């Protein structure tokens, strides 16, 4: 199969991104080390208590790991601007499937809490939110005033051990995704109306902007990989392509309604990859299964090859899911890290360089937004094409 | 590690939303769009084929015209040639006829002259004979007078006679 060039170009790009990324990660860890030592120093000395506390509080702003992870993870609040009570926040509905059935309330009930300090009582149950996740709250607060039990595991990561209700809330990601779906449906039904209105005529307006992209998906993604059977898979491929692309782009918009990390969330990429996997598996013909269950190798290699082939069935969609998730998340982390350099050095002098690099990476991310949508779609087409290919 | 564990609720939302999206776009967008593009491409193909046919037809027609022109030119040349030949023929005929006529006339004139000459000669002969007789008569008359004079007379007469 002729997909080497896709991987080669991708590998090159990944090398560049990861080289940059690791360079900045190195930067960050040294910065952490500094803040840690300073923080430790502040705690140990504690001669003037007020000064020490102030210092410690200041250091909190340096904790960019939790800051960045907060930004790239899902949330029950959609902050338009500002922070907490001083800003404007869209309180998204919380929908929980609990032991006692369905419970709904607005996320404003949590009062911007994220450490399990606020307890919401609904239908005889108590909920607390910590790290963007809703837990059943403990009866009493611990020493830090938190109603959830924090445990530090052997890797040094802090985890919450409380039980969780099933959380079907309309979170930031869900909200953003629904918005993107509305945009896609409106835009493409408009385009479709253009085709109905001007039959056989040249495209016009948004139609003329999107038609080359649709043709690109058809002629450069679907046809080379699927051959004459492409038409049946066009709706899926086009939907996946534009869905990923729009969400990638929305994720790059730093303010409302963008800013949600939809395609950088494993829950979405898993769904998309599973869709490709299901289509591949259910549309596969006998040659595909023959290749997996009876690979054309010497008989003594078969015990080795058959498990490898079966394993390969699953690694392909898993790679799809991880690739999209990792690329988009890495991009977001990179931009956030660059901007956080200002706060790490605590200096305005860093700002120009930091903003320059952030804008530069941001532009690259625009490219990545398209490339990742393209790669996901072309690999989906490739996998489906391998499954439906007629050999003889 | 939290990042790598999908949330159940989010998975459910994503699955449902994505299926709805594929359904809605498939039904209301991709189907008419792909059909529109396909139809347009087909009509463009058809138009191009038709243009090609028209071009061939044009070429055929112009070749035909060329042939006709060539034929017409040839015919014209032929006609001109014929006309020229005809003209030459007529002129030559007329010339030869005129020549013949002239020759005839000349012949006639010559014969007439000959006749006239013969007549003149005959007349001359008559006159000569009459003259000779006259001379002879005069000589005979003068012979009687003087021999010398006779001779002189005869010579003078003869000198007069030598006309022709």
From TrEMBL, chain A:
Q: Which domain of life is it from?
A: Bacteria
Give the species. Answer: Pedobacter ureilyticus
| Lineage summary | Bacteria, Pseudomonadati, Bacteroidota, Sphingobacteriia, Sphingobacteriales
SUPFAM superfamilies according to UniProt: F1F0 ATP synthase subunit A (SSF81336)
What PROSITE patterns would the database entry show? ATPASE_A
Subcellular localization, as worded in the UniProt entry: Cell membrane; Membrane
How is the protein disposed in the membrane?
Multi-pass membrane protein
Quote the protein name from its UniProt record: ATP synthase subunit a
Which keywords has UniProt assigned to this entry? Answer: ATP synthesis, Cell membrane, CF(0), Hydrogen ion transport, Ion transport, Membrane, Signal, Transmembrane, Transmembrane helix, Transport
Q: What does this protein do?
A: Key component of the proton channel; it plays a direct role in the translocation of protons across the membrane.
* Primary residence: membrane
Q: Where are the transmembrane segments?
A: 174-195, 233-256, 262-282, 355-388
CDD domains, per the entry: ATP-synt_Fo_a_6
Signal peptide positions (record): 1-33
What family, per the record? Belongs to the ATPase A chain family.
From TrEMBL, chain B:
Which sequence ranges are marked TM in the entry?
12-30
- Tell me how this protein sits in the membrane: Single-pass membrane protein
Q: Where in the cell is it found?
A: Cell membrane; Endomembrane system
Q: Does the keyword Cell membrane apply?
A: yes
Quote the InterPro entries the UniProt record gives: ATP_synth_B-like_membr_sf, ATP_synth_b/b'su_bac/chlpt, ATP_synth_F0_bsu_bac, ATP_synthase_B_chain
Q: What is its main location?
A: membrane
What Pfam family is a match, any one? ATP-synt_B
Task: For this UniProt record, give its keywords in alphabetical order, as a comma-separated list.
Answer: ATP synthesis, Cell membrane, CF(0), Coiled coil, Hydrogen ion transport, Ion transport, Membrane, Transmembrane, Transmembrane helix, Transport
Q: How does it assemble?
A: F-type ATPases have 2 components, F(1) - the catalytic core - and F(0) - the membrane proton channel. F(1) has five subunits: alpha(3), beta(3), gamma(1), delta(1), epsilon(1). F(0) has four main subunits: a(1), b(2) and c(10-14). The alpha and beta chains form an alternating ring which encloses part of the gamma chain. F(1) is attached to F(0) by a central stalk formed by the gamma and epsilon chains, while a peripheral stalk is formed by the delta and b chains. F-type ATPases have 2 components, F(1) - the catalytic core - and F(0) - the membrane proton channel. F(1) has five subunits: alpha(3), beta(3), gamma(1), delta(1), epsilon(1). F(0) has three main subunits: a(1), b(2) and c(10-14). The alpha and beta chains form an alternating ring which encloses part of the gamma chain. F(1) is attached to F(0) by a central stalk formed by the gamma and epsilon chains, while a peripheral stalk is formed by the delta and b chains.
Question: In UniProt terms, what function does this protein have?
Answer: F(1)F(0) ATP synthase produces ATP from ADP in the presence of a proton or sodium gradient. F-type ATPases consist of two structural domains, F(1) containing the extramembraneous catalytic core and F(0) containing the membrane proton channel, linked together by a central stalk and a peripheral stalk. During catalysis, ATP synthesis in the catalytic domain of F(1) is coupled via a rotary mechanism of the central stalk subunits to proton translocation.
Record's PANTHER family?
Answer: ATP SYNTHASE SUBUNIT B, ATP SYNTHASE SUBUNIT B', CHLOROPLASTIC
**Protein name, entry field:** ATP synthase subunit b
Native species of this protein?
A: Pedobacter ureilyticus
Recall the taxonomic lineage recorded for the source organism.
Answer: Bacteria, Pseudomonadati, Bacteroidota, Sphingobacteriia, Sphingobacteriales
Gene designation: atpF
């Amino acid at each position: 199969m002729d997909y080497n060039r896709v991987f080669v170009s991708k590998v090159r790009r990944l090398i560049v991104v990861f080289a940059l990324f690791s360079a900045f990660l190195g930067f960050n860890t040294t910065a952490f080390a500094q803040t840690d030592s300073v923080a430790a120093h502040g705690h140990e000395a504690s001669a003037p208590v007020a000064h020490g506390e102030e210092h410690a509080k200041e250091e909190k702003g340096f904790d960019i790991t939790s800051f960045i992870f907060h930004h790239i993870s899902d949330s029950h609040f959609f902050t338009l601007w500002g922070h907490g009570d001083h800003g404007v926040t869209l309180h998204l509905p919380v929908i929980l499937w609990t032991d006692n059935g369905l419970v709904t309330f607005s996320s404003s009930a949590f009062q911007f809490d994220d450490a399990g300090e606020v307890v919401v009582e609904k239908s005889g149950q108590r909920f607390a939110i910590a790290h963007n996740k809703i837990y059943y709250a403990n009866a009493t607060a611990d020493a830090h005033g938190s109603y959830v039990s924090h445990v530090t595991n052997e890797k040094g990561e802090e985890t919450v051990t409380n039980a969780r209700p099933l959380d079907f809330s309309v979170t930031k990601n869900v909200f953003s995704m629904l918005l993107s779906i509305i945009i896609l449906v409106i835009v493409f039904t408009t385009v479709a109306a253009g085709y109905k209105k001007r039959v056989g005529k040249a495209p016009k307006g948004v139609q003329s902007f999107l038609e080359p992209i649709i043709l690109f998906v058809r002629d450069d993604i679907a046809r080379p990989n699927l051959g004459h059977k492409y038409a049946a898979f066009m709706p899926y491929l086009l939907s996946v392509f534009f869905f990923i692309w729009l969400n990638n782009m929305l994720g790059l918009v730093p303010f409302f309604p963008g800013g949600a990390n939809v395609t950088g969330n494993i829950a979405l990429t898993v769904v998309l990859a599973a869709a490709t996997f299901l289509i591949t598996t259910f549309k596969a013909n006998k040659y595909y299964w023959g290749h997996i269950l009876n690979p054309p190798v010497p008989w003594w290699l078969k015990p080795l090859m058959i498990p490898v082939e079966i394993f390969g069935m699953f690694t392909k969609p898993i790679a799809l899911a991880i690739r999209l998730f990792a690329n988009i998340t890495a991009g977001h982390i990179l931009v956030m890290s660059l901007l956080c350099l200002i706060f790490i050095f605590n200096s305005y002098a860093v700002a120009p360089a930091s903003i320059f690099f952030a804008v530069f990476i941001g532009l690259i991310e625009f490219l990545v937004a398209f490339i990742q949508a393209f790669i996901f779609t072309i690999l989906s087409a490739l996998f489906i094409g391998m499954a439906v290919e007629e050999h003889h | 590690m939290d990042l790598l564990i999908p949330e159940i609720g989010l998975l459910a939302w994503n699955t449902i939303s994505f299926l709805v999206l594929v359904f809605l776009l498939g039904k209301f967008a991709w189907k008419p769009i792909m059909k529109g593009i396909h139809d347009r491409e087909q009509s463009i193909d058809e138009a191009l084929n038709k243009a090609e046919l028209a071009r061939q037809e044009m070429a055929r027609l112009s070749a035909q015209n060329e042939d006709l022109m060539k034929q017409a030119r040839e015919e014209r040349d032929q006609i001109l040639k014929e006309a020229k030949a005809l003209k030459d023929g007529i002129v030559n005929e007329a010339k030869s006829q005129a020549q013949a006529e002239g020759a005839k006339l000349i012949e006639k004139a010559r014969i007439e002259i000959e006749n006239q000459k013969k007549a003149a000669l005959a007349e001359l002969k008559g006159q000569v004979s009459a003259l000779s007789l006259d001379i002879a008569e005069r000589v005979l008359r003068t012979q009687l007078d003087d021999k010398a004079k006779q001779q002189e007379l005869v010579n003078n007469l003869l000198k007069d006679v030598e006309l022709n």
